[in-house]
């Protein structure tokens, strides 16, 4: 079950945070998202010496904490997508598909001439699309 | 020489040079944003867009007539149909439909189902009175005026309406 989604700009400023649980632990989720941004920065600055430096957008599992898993995705413009989920076994392919659709929705939201880059995303269409993507993700993994 | 038959909108659209749709959309969005920043008043921006459209229309109509070879229109109904089916198809690549005729046949609405100008656009709450596509009604007004057809046209809740 996806618990929280966040989009963080290239200066680590939050552009969009949405939690999908009824529980009142939004603060804890925001804190987790904040910590994962640090993990991403760490990964980006110290690439693994083993493989060649490929432009990998999907960063994979960032840090498993208690009962949550945090996944990260980095775009070429240094915008980070962070996903917090409670699912225990999530297929890599599902994650990549999810992030690809999320990226497409993000690109459409940013193409709005009234969106100011660097400010929060206020588009209702974006919120609806994200909700649809999250819902369909939940259906494919539990089905 | 035999007279050339009028071409359909599709045929002309296929034969003219085309530009990337996203570039077009983003450029128009940038123009509207800049007008809003410069003029600040939504009504002023609407007027400016209409004026820009008018200037485009008076020049565009010659190209339209040259490329499309349409016959002289008998009445305003035919004019509206030609604008919607041939004109919009040729320049925007989308077909519009003509509806909402009034009793005398002097006013109609041209409806664009998917308008390339408004892809990705969401009007913020501060600009609710903005006629985002007012440039299109200016183009129609400019084009029709070249036929000595003074016609006030405007955008009506994201629909463009033309009156003759």
UniProtKB/TrEMBL annotation, chain A:
It is found in: Endoplasmic reticulum; Golgi apparatus, cis-Golgi network; Golgi apparatus. Pfam families: Sedlin_N. Keywords: Endoplasmic reticulum, ER-Golgi transport, Golgi apparatus, Transport. It comes from the Eukaryota. GO terms for biological process: endoplasmic reticulum to Golgi vesicle-mediated transport. Its main location: endoplasmic reticulum. The keyword Endoplasmic reticulum applies. One of its GO terms (cellular component) is endoplasmic reticulum. InterPro entries: Longin-like_dom_sf, Sedlin, TRAPPC, TRAPPC2L. The keyword Endoplasmic reticulum applies. Part of the multisubunit transport protein particle (TRAPP) complex. Belongs to the TRAPP small subunits family. Sedlin subfamily. This is Trafficking protein particle complex subunit. It comes from Sesamum indicum.
Automatic annotation (TrEMBL), chain B:
It is found in: Endoplasmic reticulum; Golgi apparatus, cis-Golgi network. The keyword Ribosomal protein does not apply. Its main location: endoplasmic reticulum. PANTHER family: TRAFFICKING PROTEIN PARTICLE COMPLEX SUBUNIT 3 (PTHR13048). May play a role in vesicular transport from endoplasmic reticulum to Golgi. This is Trafficking protein particle complex subunit. GO terms for biological process: Golgi vesicle transport; macroautophagy. Pfam families: TRAPP. The keyword Endoplasmic reticulum applies. Homodimer. One of its GO terms (cellular component) is endoplasmic reticulum. Belongs to the TRAPP small subunits family. BET3 subfamily. Keywords: Endoplasmic reticulum, ER-Golgi transport, Golgi apparatus, Transport. InterPro entries: Bet3, NO_sig/Golgi_transp_ligand-bd, TRAPP_component.
